[in-house]
Amino acid sequence: MRTIDWVTDPDRPGREGRIELIDQTALPGELRVLRIAAVTDLVAAIRSLAVRGAPALGVAGAFGVALAARQFADDPAGLAAAVHEIETARPTAVNLARGTRRAAELLSSGPDAVLREAYAVRDEEIASSEAMALRGADLISELCGPRPRLLTHCNTGGLCTVTVGTALGVIGELHRRGALAGVIASETRPLLQGARLTAWELTQWGVDFRVAVDSAGPFLMARGEVQAVILGADRICANGDVINKIGTYAHALGAHRAGLPFVVVAPESTVDLDTLDGAAVEIEDRGAAEVTALSSPVNPAASVNPAASVGPAAAVNPAFDVTPHDLVTAIVTERRVIRLDRGEKP
Ligand code: MRU
Known about the structure:
Largest sheet: 7 strands, mixed
Distance between the termini: 32 Å
Number of strands: 14
Number of domains: 2
Bound molecules: 5-S-methyl-1-O-phosphono-5-thio-D-ribulose
Helix content: 25-40%
Strand content: 15-25%
Number of helices: 10
Strand order of the largest sheet: 6-5-4-7-10-13-14
Shape: globular
């Protein structure tokens, strides 16, 4: 099943249509599909992380403009405001603004042209995932030899793209080739994308994995329990700095200290050559409640349950961090392998 798609009603062809997406806040407890026919509902889904992950956000942005073009067909001011709302719903992953703008450029050609462009964004992400899985699996085998155990962070599977995934797509391909010993998935505080979503996907694929708390990563690397770190990105800067889920930088430092490859897998749609380095990127702060609430993989709703809270506390909650380019071994996209360890640049 696709994480996100545009669905038309066979009884009402033509301009009718809506976005359907897997509600990632409900996983792993429930596989629930959200049907979205209004821009405000899409923006809420993006902000709540019902749809999340850089490539999926790009597709959501493009389909969002297709929705806006229909919803505000006779209201140019409303349309412009809706497009702006979608584009800025989350600031860090470059894909959201890119997917939104790409579809918005077709607005003067009418809603059907916008929808065609949104379909193209979706299809390109699917093709990119498939290509990255093959290229990334080849690279991991080259760097690590036969059957390594890999550590991954956050969720980079089909849930963060449309199908297949980025880093987790590589893991799935290695598993299919019989070239993987297993995976350690870091839980990814505070919203547990690793413990909830990556664990759910790896279970479905039959991959042998264990979940670890985020802070265990560097120690497990030092103890020789993994042979490489592989994860995704929300934005890759011109100098090779990688913006990704909070905790990525700590894992990169651990890999550097342990002398392990640190491999980033992301589509070209995440490479942002207009941003020179990580210092120029707005890092989303998601507020105190996600940190002070004690959510768990079996009870993600605890993040809104005051009873399961550490109590009143100030908290800082950067959702992403910047991994400096000199800690990154290689970046894998659908078109190339960029060997930062050999001085190559995006
Ligand atoms: O806050 P999220 O869950 O949207 O963050 C997602 C990540 O950081 C992923 O690791 C990232 O998008 C890479 S997946 C291509």
